[in-house]
Amino acid sequence: MSRSLPSALSSELNADELKPFYAVELLFDSGDLRFWTGYGDITANGETWTGSGTVLSFSSTQEVTDLSANGMTLTFSGLESAIVAILLGENYRGRIVRVYVGCLDANNQPVSDMYQVFAGRMDVMAMQENGTTANISISVENVLIDLDRPRARKLTNEEQLKRFPADSSLSNVAKLQDRQISWGR
Questions:
Q1: Which residues contact 139 (CB under 8 A, 6 or more apart)?
Q2: pTM of the predicted model as reported, rounded to 2 decimal places
């Protein structure tokens, strides 16, 4: 699958000096959380991203040529209590997570829009605390995991009318179940 990086980002990746960073976007009902692996706030992709420094870490993930769904784990440590309250207080399962990569210029500003390297949905959140610090790990599943989920749809008139109220194409299916049809007489 061909991919195209923004030209400024591609040029920066080929430069002699490189200041790469990662960014994570967590989408919640009460407001989206955006972090990047640096210090201070930056503006990229039209949004403000909060610097998390060493607070944010990622497990490795790999891109494969088949349709397997590889996930990743995000780990946050030392977050402010307001952010921890959002993470623990909201329904997080199935929420969208996006991971981006970008580069900074000499003035520590993004050289272009960031490039999305992963998208998935939050699955399991685990919290470990020792009295002074807390670590929150979020398991994120690739969106391809939905291909493995069973679909509970039936080819009945009732099911069809729920989805498409004006479609009566399956109205005679129940009559055909026990009907004897003689072929070739």
A1: 71, 73, 122, 123, 124, 125, 126
A2: 0.70
